[in-house]
């Protein structure tokens, strides 16, 4: 049976807390895991990945140890793009980053910090697929 997993990968614990509250406010109560850098998330993902499950990842770009780009490169090596949805959550959206993100088939879109209720309501359809 397929399960849905939600990961928050961000070194800013307050940003994660705010995003979780916004998701709850929008009636998206999926169980989730939080990681403070890409390496922690990748280690967990590699050990627990199932090609039949669906993964929703809210990913910061700038983090210590392993940044968002390095995480995406590593994730590309083994994930099923149709079963993985990544939202890049960032405080600044550089046009070069948007162009770079398009090389990853599972990156859905950029979300500006802090993520609003209105933005999450637009994304609800992706959680219900």
Automatic annotation (TrEMBL):
- What are the 4-aspartylphosphate sites (modified residues) in this protein? 60
Xref: SMART domains: REC
Tell me where in this chain the Response regulatory domain is found: 5-128
Instruction: Identify the keywords attached in UniProt to this record, alphabetized.
Output: Phosphoprotein
Q: What GO biological process terms does the UniProt entry carry, in alphabetical order?
A: phosphorelay signal transduction system
The record's InterPro entries line, in alphabetical order, gives: CheY-like_superfamily, Sig_transdc_resp-reg_receiver, TCS_response_regulator
One Pfam match: Response_reg
Gene3D superfamilies registered for this protein in UniProt? 3.40.50.2300
Q: Which PANTHER family match?
A: RESPONSE REGULATOR RCP1, RESPONSE REGULATOR RCP1-RELATED
Name used for this protein in its record: CheY chemotaxis protein or a CheY-like REC (Receiver) domain
Q: What is the phylogenetic placement of the source species in the record?
A: Bacteria, Pseudomonadati, Bacteroidota, Flavobacteriia, Flavobacteriales
């Amino acid at each position: 049976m397929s399960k849905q997993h939600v990961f928050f990968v961000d070194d800013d614990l307050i940003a994660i807390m705010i995003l979780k509250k916004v998701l709850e406010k929008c009636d998206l109560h999926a169980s989730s895991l939080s990681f403070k850098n890409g390496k922690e998330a990748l280690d967990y993902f590699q050990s627990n990945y199932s090609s039949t499950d669906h993964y929703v990842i809210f990913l910061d770009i700038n983090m210590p140890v392993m940044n968002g780009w390095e995480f995406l490169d590593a994730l590309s090596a083994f994930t099923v793009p149709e079963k993985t949805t990544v939202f890049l959550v960032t405080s600044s959206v550089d046009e070069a980053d948007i162009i770079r993100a398009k090389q990853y088939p599972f990156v859905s879109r950029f979300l500006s910090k802090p993520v609003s209720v209105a933005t999450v309501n637009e994304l609800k359809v992706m959680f219900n697929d």
